[in-house]
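Why show two proteins at once? Because comparison is the fastest way to build intuition. When a single record is shown, students tend to memorize it. When two are placed side by side, the eye starts asking what differs. So, the first record is below.
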Amino acid sequence: MAQGRFNRRVWAWALYDWANSAYATTVMAGFFPVFFKEYWSAGVPAGQSSFHLGLTNSFASLVIVLLAPLLGAIADRGRSRKRFLAIGAGIGIAATGGLFFLGLGAWKAAAVLYTVATIGFSASLIFYDSLIVSVAGEGRFDTVSALGFSLGYLGGGILLGLNVLMTAFPAWFGFEGIAEAVRFSFVTVAVWWLVFSLPLFRWVEEPPCATTVVHGLSMVRAGFRQLVGTFREVRRVRMAFLFLLAYWCYIDGVDTVVRMAVDYGLALGFGSQDLLLALLLTQFVGFPAAVVFGRLGERHGPKRGIYIGLAVYVGVVFYASQMESVIEFYALAVAVGLVQGGVQALSRSLYARLIPPEKSGEFFGFFNMLGKFAAVIGPVMVGWTSAVTGEPRLSLLTLLLLFGIGALVLTRVDVEQGQRAVGRGG
């Protein structure tokens, strides 16, 4: 994918994926689950710590569920997408850096800071996703969205690789031991996230507002009115909401695999270093795979690419419920890396086709709301089943229902009809 195909605004926008993916990889999927179980939850039974982790993820998601559509509507009316993105990122960066200061056994404080950081991270994505309509032409949604995810995989993978190296050889970096290296890794995430967010604020323009721009309390009131008005437009944007229903189901399974994979591997008795290396493998496989999925969506439509990804996830869940060795975990990491970014990128680009561009903040608020509402259920469902039955393999199979329902509802989404309904080319 040559650089000449994209202008400076596109690259600046996509670099925010590179920036925030450090949190998604090193913190959410990598070090936090391991450190939470083995360091901050020292002395707590494994099943109980899994439940605490699932509950923490779910509470953070619930907050975003409640706030996302309103925040998006307010940002639309106040022409404040970049400002709200900066606030969310700032909160996430500060809370992530704060994890460095927590000592052995401080699982409650760790859960609080992780919750705050995840809320900031998720809130920033609402406004980041909505900016795609101002940086990509309608025919470029698939490739631009995929560029963001591919850079996210690469950037997140590079920093995760450094962090894994820090924990494998702490003396090389002047650390007293693994625990200090892991704690310092949270600082590197905060700095990485901050530095690589700056191009977006420098070169990506705030999209125009279709209505009068308002500020302060008037912006909040206008946001509420716009939100109410959108609910009244359900028939006009029926395909967008039908897609959201499908997305709600299948992204639950995707997010749960991402958030609970390391915890699942630990429950099966695999070593934490092996699991982190598998996660690193996923990142570097995901970089070129997301680009390929973007081209697939551009040529054959995003729905087909999403179906392929969901089929692979079904196979991954079946295989994971039977695996016995770390080598098998590595194989599954490759399989997930091949499709994870593709499903996420094509979901974002498909949805962008189905929404009114002047209300992108609000509609991507709904997009993130339903994604996070799904994540309220998934981690708790897996964690609770594991804690009650004592059998993590059984809990993983519950995800098959979510992938199946999501794929079935997606068959009802008529993309061309949805584009015509919002005045886009069909």
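Second record. Ask yourself what differs from the first in the token line.
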Amino acid sequence: MRRGSFICVFTCCLGLLAMTAGRAARAAKSALEIYFIDVEGGQSTLVVDPLGESLLVDTGWDDFNGRDANRILAAAKAAGIDHIDDLVITHYHSDHVGGVTQLAAKIKIGAFFDHGPNTVENSAEVEHNYTAYLAVAGSKRVIVKPGDRIPLKGMTVEVLEAAGEGIHKPLPGAGQPNPLCASEPRALPDSTENSQSVGLLVTYGRFRFIDLGDLTNQKELQLVCPNNLIGTVDLFLVTHHGTEHPGTGDSSNTPAVVDALHPRVGVMNNGALKGGHPLAWQTVHDSPGLEDLWQLHYSMSGGPEHNSPRDFIANVGGDEDGNYIEAFASRDGSFTVMNSRNNFSKTYSK
């Protein structure tokens, strides 16, 4: 054999071995991975199961030279995937669906799931976003209803709420009376797209993660009052970025909801100047059984008293860093949360 041929064969064998090792590593994954991507106060959450199936919830903002689409691509690369199997759009506000056109131009998306037509909020922003989304989703669009499941094999993804309607029957093991409902002030109606958000429960073995988009109090409460139809969760994506507008229909994270969910850990996808309201932060922080509250940004409105310790905050210096928070969950219900800014992590036992 010529020396050049030998080098070629040797190099090709190394490449094959590397490829085989990479596939073996992916096949050996036993954890559910969740990436809370920094889209500066919007939402984009990537969930990848051990089978390599991927669920993306929302796409962040448009513009910013494709900033949010690029951050989603970076998370996908870190997760070892080259496409998105299923994309759920919780609602049609710019901070949740705005980046869909830019993202779809850069990565293949298998199917699109949403709550259906915009029938509630009559605004130029929502109409523009909805039209742009339809152009991208096309025939791959699926409208979901409460009780539906997103078709994935390695994790269970249940729709709890969509288009203002919630599930009516308790999930297995749930259904207990919620004593906090009696003292809960009457929730005001919300006539924006927030109230139409798709809410999801992701289950992997005994691990449970909930994402209710930007649901506001009236729609949140119908899931837990008078009986808690969901049960408890391990990981809670703080609803509506930790928004609180007292005396309006635009508030979220009432104690009757948060305490009923009884999360072990919360993650708040706030921005430096958006969400992270002191009242919402305090409600989640004080929820019985909560071990830690992680944040994507230091909240400027929260100040030292209403922000978590800095090790638990992905971005502390403003709106330019793009650090993310990642969770790794095992089937036994244990999980680890990691801050990409400083690689600080903490494990929560089963």
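One difference worth noting in the second protein: Residues 335 and 348 are 5 Å apart (CA to CA).
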